[in-house]
Specification:
With 108 residues, the chain is an all-alpha fold. The chain is 70% helix and 0% strand. The chain contains six helices and no strands. Helix 1 (5-16) crosses helix 3 (31-38) and helix 4 packs across helix 5. It is globular and about 50 Å long. The N and C termini lie far apart (46 Å).
């Protein structure tokens, strides 16, 4: 686990020997914005996850987990919430899944 998602991207980029400009072009970003993402000053856009996964031959689902966990962590930190929010969120996710499963099983 990295401190933030941008650091994760920086490690991927440097391990592959790419410059900011090279990776930025592949992700449809300019190098200045990619640098801000890597330094935690700008958020990575979720719609670019597919491009990132493709460039580094990563499992998309694992990459999405890494990204979403960062989004959740940022929100909890910025809101000064206790970690109890995670337990309640988990319950709500389970409720949503059950509700959607029931709706899918209804036949009209």
């Amino acid at each position: 686990m990295k401190k933030h998602f941008g650091e994760y991207i920086r490690n991927l980029r440097t391990n592959k020997g790419l410059t900011l400009t090279q990776l930025g072009a592949k992700l449809e970003l300019d190098s200045a914005n990619l640098s801000k993402i890597e330094n935690g000053k700008r958020e990575f856009d979720e719609k670019r996850l597919v491009l990132l996964a493709s460039e580094f031959n990563l499992d998309f689902d694992a990459l999405k987990i890494e990204f979403i966990s960062q989004v959740i962590a940022n929100k909890i930190y910025e809101s000064s919430c206790s970690l109890d929010v995670l337990h309640l969120a988990e319950k709500k996710v389970n409720y949503l899944r059950q509700s959607n499963a029931k709706q899918k099983s209804l036949k009209f």
